[in-house]
Design brief:
- This protein has 101 residues and is α+β, with helices and mostly antiparallel strands.
- The protein has two domains: 42 residues, no CATH class; 47 residues, no CATH class.
- It is built from five helices and two strands.
- It has a two-stranded antiparallel ribbon with strand order 1-2.
- Helix 4 packs across helix 5.
- The chain is globular and about 45 Å long.
Amino acid sequence: MPSKLATKLEQYKLNEPVKITDRGIHYQQNYNIAGGQSWSNSFSKTSNRAFNWSRGAHGLRHTYAQERMKEIRAETQEIALTIVSQEMGHFRPDITLTYLR
């Protein structure tokens, strides 16, 4: 992460972590940055308002994975899947296959 971005991110760090539950999953939130269902809903509403359509936040992830796989010129598909998986925060290449459907 670029140091300028890291510095900006640290401005949103909470003094104490907060426990939250989103869609039945428990998380520890360390930064005052929206996420989960509320962020997903906000993304869809904004996309619909700006473009009159939305595939939702998860649709954006699918599109990103598909486009990145086309862009990456790796020796093998497994290497490309590993790269995209890491970029998406999964760190499991097999999960990336789900996004390529």
